[in-house]
Design a protein that fits this description.
Elements: H1 2-8, H2 13-40, H3 45-73, H4 76-93, H5 99-111, H6 116-127, H7 131-162, H8 165-184, H9 187-191, H10 208-238, H11 243-264, H12 271-288, H13 295-306, H14 309-323, H15 329-354, H16 359-377, H17 381-388
Length: 403
């Protein structure tokens, strides 16, 4: 565990992780808090689904835009203003009754969701002493992210039961502001600046290796979206309402354990080959789900399927940090969130469309989609070849990044 000791032993590390996770709680709370509140207001399920989709799309669109502003202006202003505006959207939603204004409030909340994940990942190289410790931090980040998506829904349901769905929205808004502002107050965040870079409209997407990694992660997002719908369908088939939560919880626990193990180990394999082989492991584990085993076995298989998830993400973060064009790393990390969210939405819709053909049809899909991801990732070996090539001269920046 020396890698984790080195990572967490650095000044500011524990503070940055803790405050960032608090600020990211709304990522796990937001969609459910909105849905519970809307149903409390007797909004129909069709409208609820549309408004949740609006929130997810707005978050996916706003992330890269805010990430680009961070790369040009620094993290503090974007995180502070974004968290206040997004929280204002949640607070406004809590006092509205008409679906039209509700939609505007939800759109506002999504668009201005502070890019806490990209900011922390772009910050690590300036806080930690070497690449190995940075890689450990990425693995820790990918693992602890599972806590957000497990604890967030539990907090929403608990607060809604003890107080009210409106209180759940207020808590979501408060967590976003408190976590974001506390994170932004840290000295490394205040002092962080992106490298001077040549400004253009396409930003980090001009990097071919980055586009390939994002395509692979988009396919992963589709598989994760299938899980959500598939877990509900399986629970209904088994006549065990709580089973869907157990399935997704087992997957999150597997991802937490797998990520921690991955971060604790030393890997001599080049990053591109690592990424491809981890994706193969993930695909094979997902293929096991197509057996549609009895519930107890299925819970175990979901846990096994999660083991490779966090390592895949952690490895991808490390590659993205290296292949993103200079001065665009925050936007590059923001695109990760965007493609996974987009893939998640597509996977949910796809699973809903094939549900009529039975559970096996749903659970065949994650493995099939991951096969496409593996084929795309096979080209990431060029990332390893680029590491051995002589560095290209850096052009003079058109515009310096100012604070």
């Amino acid at each position: 565990m020396s890698g984790y000791r080195d990572c967490l032993g650095q000044k500011y590390s524990k503070y940055l992780i803790a405050t960032n996770l608090v600020g990211r709680l709304p990522n796990g709370m937001g969609p459910l808090a909105i849905a519970v509140y809307l149903r409390w207001k007797d909004v129909g399920y069709g409208t609820v689904g549309g408004l949740i989709a609006l929130y997810v799309v707005a978050t996916a669109v706003g992330g890269p835009v805010l990430g680009r502003i961070v790369d040009r202006r620094g993290q503090v202003a974007v995180l502070t203003v974004g968290s206040v505006l997004s929280a204002a959207g949640f607070a406004l939603l809590a006092v509205l009754d008409d679906t039209g204004p509700m939609a505007l409030a939800i759109l506002f909340s999504g668009l201005f969701t502070p890019p806490l994940e990209p900011c922390l990942r772009s910050l690590w190289p300036s806080v930690l002493p070497d690449e190995r410790t940075v890689a450990t931090a990425y693995a820790l980040d990918a693992s602890l992210q599972q806590i957000v998506f497990v604890s967030g829904p539990l907090l929403v349901t608990g607060i809604a039961a003890v107080a009210s769905p409106r209180a759940a929205l207020w808590f979501t808004a408060a967590a976003m502001v408190v976590g974001s502002v506390a994170f932004a107050c840290a000295r490394p965040v205040r002092e962080w600046r992106a490298e001077p870079h040549r400004a253009d409209w396409i930003g980090p997407l001009r990097s071919a290796p980055l586009r390939r990694i994002l395509t692979s992660l988009g396919c992963l997002g589709v598989a994760l979206g299938v899980f959500s719908v598939g877990s509900v369908a399986y629970a209904e088939h088994a006549d065990w309402p709580q089973l869907s939560g157990l399935l997704l919880g087992a997957n999150a626990v597997g991802a937490l354990v797998g990520g921690l193990v991955y971060g604790a180990a030393r890997w001599d394999l080049p990053a591109g080959k690592q990424f491809s082989r981890l994706l193969v492991g993930l695909m094979l584990c997902y293929c096991l789900l197509a057996t549609v085993a009895p519930p107890v076995v299925m819970i175990a298989l979901m846990g096994i399927a999660g083991v490779f998830l966090s390592p895949v993400l952690a490895c991808a973060f490390g590659i993205i940090g290296r292949v993103a064009p200079r001065g665009t790393v925050t936007e590059a990390f923001a695109w990760v969130v965007t493609v996974i969210l987009a893939g998640n939405a597509a996977g949910s819709a796809l699973a809903g469309a094939v549900e009529r053909y039975g559970l096996r049809a749903i659970y065949v899909m994650p493995g099939a989609v991951l096969l496409l991801s593996v084929l795309v990732a096979a080209t990431t070996r060029s990332v390893d070849e680029e590491d051995d090539a002589p560095a290209a001269p850096v052009p003079e920046p058109v515009a310096e990044v100012s604070g």
